[in-house]
Specification:
Blueprint (H helix, E strand, L loop, with lengths): L1 H15 L2 H10 L13 H8 L1 H20 L19 H18 L12 H11 L1 H18 L2 H21 L8 H18 L1 H9 L13
Helix pairs in contact: 1-4, 1-5, 2-4, 3-4, 4-5, 4-6, 5-6, 6-7, 7-8, 8-9
Length: about 220
């Protein structure tokens, strides 16, 4: 139990590293939470400080999720402190737990008053390791929706919805044998709903027509 708790805590702390706040202060001496949308995420950094810095934040945030799954989970040793009733081996289950802990850390970071980003990039990093095909499909949907609508938030919401849908369609329509499907699906649904929940203010602005469109041709002054 102590070993698993340590992995959860380390993954949470890893996910809690506020890359957007750190990089914005290092590069421009500002607190990104006081500019743009006020969100401590890569999209807001792109909007306020430009693509180069924003993409760096997104990469580092995604890396947190990937490292939790690939590196931190490997600290696990021994056997699970509870009966593993899933079709996964113990290590894969630990990877899922570590990745989810990192996402939670990103959203509710202990280093910034429990107010972090929306979890998209960190979830992307962990899920690209666990369900690569479904995440690539979701990324495609994200690109298409953002290209058409110019709303990054709308693309993120559609991508979050796409991931569990892709799992369902691949398993039940195309009869792809996805290992651990019946355990993965509830977990992915939880993460998708969590990401949508973090976008609740964006959804309200989209409904009211107040959400800002992203101008890809806009150059930072």
């Amino acid at each position: 139990m102590i070993n698993l708790l340590a992995i959860i805590v380390i993954s949470y702390l890893l996910g809690s590293i506020p890359n957007s706040i750190i990089l914005s202060k290092m590069a421009k001496g500002i607190d990104i939470r006081e500019h743009g949308s006020g969100n401590a995420g890569g999209t807001n950094v792109i909007r306020v400080l430009g693509f180069k810095l924003g993409l760096s934040v997104i990469f580092l945030d995604a890396l947190k999720g990937a490292l939790a799954v690939v590196v931190v989970a490997r600290l696990f040793s021994g056997s699970m402190p509870f009966h593993n009733a899933t079709p996964f081996d113990d290590f894969t289950l630990v990877q899922i737990i570590a990745g989810a802990s990192a996402v939670i850390g990103h959203i509710w970071t202990i280093f910034a008053g429990f107010k972090g980003g929306k979890g998209i990039a960190t979830a992307l990093g962990m899920l690209l390791i666990l369900i690569t095909v479904d995440m690539l499909i979701a990324l495609g949907v994200f690109v298409i929706v953002v290209s058409i609508s110019k709303y990054i938030s709308l693309g993120s919401i559609f991508a979050a919805i796409t991931v569990p849908l892709a799992l369902v369609v691949r398993e039940n329509v195309f009869h792809v044998n996805i290992p651990g499907y019946h355990i993965l699906l509830p977990f992915i649904l939880f993460l998708s709903l969590l990401v949508i929940f973090t976008h609740r203010k964006n959804i309200s602005r989209l409904v009211n027509g107040h959400e800002s469109k992203f101008n890809f041709s806009k150059k930072k002054k």
